[in-house]
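Re: duplicated header lines in exported structure tokens

Our pipeline writes sequence and tokens for each protein into one text file. With two proteins the header for the second block appears twice in some exports. Here is an export where it did not happen, for reference. First protein block:
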Amino acid sequence: MLSTRVLFYYILFVIIVIASLLANSWYTLLYTIPVLVFLWYSQITTPKDLKVSVTRKMRERTLFAGDSTTVRLTVKNLDDKPVNLEVVDTLPLGSRVISGSNKVCTVLRPGEEITVEYSVEFPLRGHYTIGPTRVSTSDPAGIAELELIVENEDYITVFPKFEPIKTVYIRPRYTGVWPGFISTRRSGLGSEFYGVRDYIPGDDLRRINWKVSARRGKLASNEYESENVTDAVVVLDTTGLESLGEYLTPVLEAMVSAAASLAYSLITQGNRVGLLVHGRYKLHVNPGFGKKQFLRILHYLADVKPGAAMMVDQVVTFMLPYMLRPQAQVIVISPMLDINILYALRELAGLEYSIIIVSPDPYSLPAKSKAEEIAFRIMSLERLNKIEKVKEYCAVIDWKLTASLEEVLKRYRWVCPHITTRR
């Protein structure tokens, strides 16, 4: 491939020829000889093909938003001649190099190799691709160029950041048979006092209530409220976020982080947790246990984008009955900007799900002008009207985004020790 520089030499050649014709001097054509020799030399010194190998090694392939990884790129000359190389490792949009460089220019002797190391940062969650690597060479004058694209893509998943919330206090009507942290309103193994019953041979002596035994004249044992696990699905609703303009990103990232935080807390308590996302892509993860399930949820949350082709009530009421049994726990994260979320919550309440809404308030963010402040107040009133309507059949946590999610959950528990769904 010829570079744009060769155009200059061709124009120079044409000018010399025209000048010799106009001057009627054939001696002037002798000045074209250096130009022709220069172009000929450029042609014979340019390699016909590039014989190089390119390998890439990365320290980490899964990151959290704001983290960085180190990339080592090794380029080796497989030809029997020296070669002048320019190497560029293609980086995705949204990433930035914080140390080193993903570009290098070098001359490699036969069999020689060079290693380039750089660190790249990913400020936002998502799925990214590093590569391909572009290797190019040219003649000493830079007239003729040869480029090789090495298809060596590597994939990186950037998870959203989350708060390691210790406990999410829920009290659904359905609980499983495995021990956990959710009170079941029946006696069994647990830590909360449930009642007193007559002593049965074999009871642990530490369970004997000596004061009641003295009053009754016979031994009595304490009973404790059974604590088990449950099934839960975190529903992430991005409907209406497009109307926020420049405030969309902080609100969306807060919602995604909240979904990851709640899933982490519920899974660490031993519950089966799933995910349902209503956004540009319809994403769902069936309830499951353990660390692998949490990583699966994080993987899907990395893909969340605003926008939807279907109404939220159609998606939620169709998907949830296939994912979750009645009376189990549903936690909905929604800014409450779309009227259709009211219909969805009403349908879920009719299916006897225990529902909690965590609603981030997009209008709690600082306004940038007086006009925006007035608009925020008006739209905030419309949002509060929706919240008052859904309080009839579910608990609502109004989350001001100036506070962390853990602070909001603690404050809500202080006002209402047990979050229950109203019938």
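Second protein block, exported in the same file:
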Amino acid sequence: MRILTLIALIFVLFTANAYASDDVFVVQDIKAEATAKSAVAAREIAFNKALSRSFKLLTTRLVSKDQQDTISIPTSDEIAGMVLDFEITSEKSSRTSYRATYTIRYNKQDIRNYFGQQQVTYTDISGQSLLVIPFLQMGNQTILWNAQNPFLSGWQESLNQKNALTKIVVPINDLQDMIDIKDNEALTYKKENIARMISRYHAKEAVILIASPSNGIENLQTSPLNIYIYKTHNSYPEYIETLEIRPSSRADIVSKSIKETKRFLQDEWKRQYSTTPSEGLKTYNVVVRFPTIDQWVKTKTVLEQNIGKESIALKSLRTKEATLQINFAGNINSLDLSLRRAGYALRPVGAGYFEIYAAN
């Protein structure tokens, strides 16, 4: 099928508000240009380029780095068959050239099927932020809020990539932040304080970063730098990884460390919430407790909208409790995160069952 036929079939110019800002299957700000014998021919060539670039960006977003090279990029016609719709946000043309910026929305089931054929793991869970708390180690001490910490200001000033899977947020250094975690509490924080910060910043979870210059802060730009990464979801800090950042004449080491740490955190998110296509659907037994029938109807509607009506089977219904069987293509963390986007969450209740509850 020719690309111009696709353009004729799809209603292209719709409002940008049609896109959800956290839709992982929407790729924005794709620029492409081409020259040809006519503007029409140049337009088709440019659109082919936009399709290829957007698909590569989508793959980078959803698939972990170690598997990206194993995916064969489909042809423009094959990619076009997975496009749900698109928008041309700006364009300019002459008799022999065409230039445009596109927003392309993919059909999520077509993309899932394609990844399944390629036998790669992927994650399509987003809509949650990751709170990053960047400390600086100076000798035997750590500092966070002190003006001597260039990593806090560097993270605060860094921008989220438009097509990144996970949004990263950084504390703003207000009074409540300084009460919740102090300079010397990088690894001795109070769990309830971290939970309060996660809630305040509307994040899914938090990570502690400790930047440790190998030769002192005064030689920061000329010596290797270690970034120690810890998760905080347990009652104690859980060590994840150490990133070694080498100095470079082309980049400030603080900026370079932020860029490389972001790349690692995005990949870690993909690994944590990845789905293996070959595993197929998994079945989860869940309980929903409700004070009134109206609340049950509301909860059931939200679940059907976010998981799919066909994926939910009602096993039993009592006065204030329902038992469901949910078929879901992903692990329990992915299901929990999908529910959290709708204001609900999961917790184990024993005997292989989980409870769905309102996440306040």
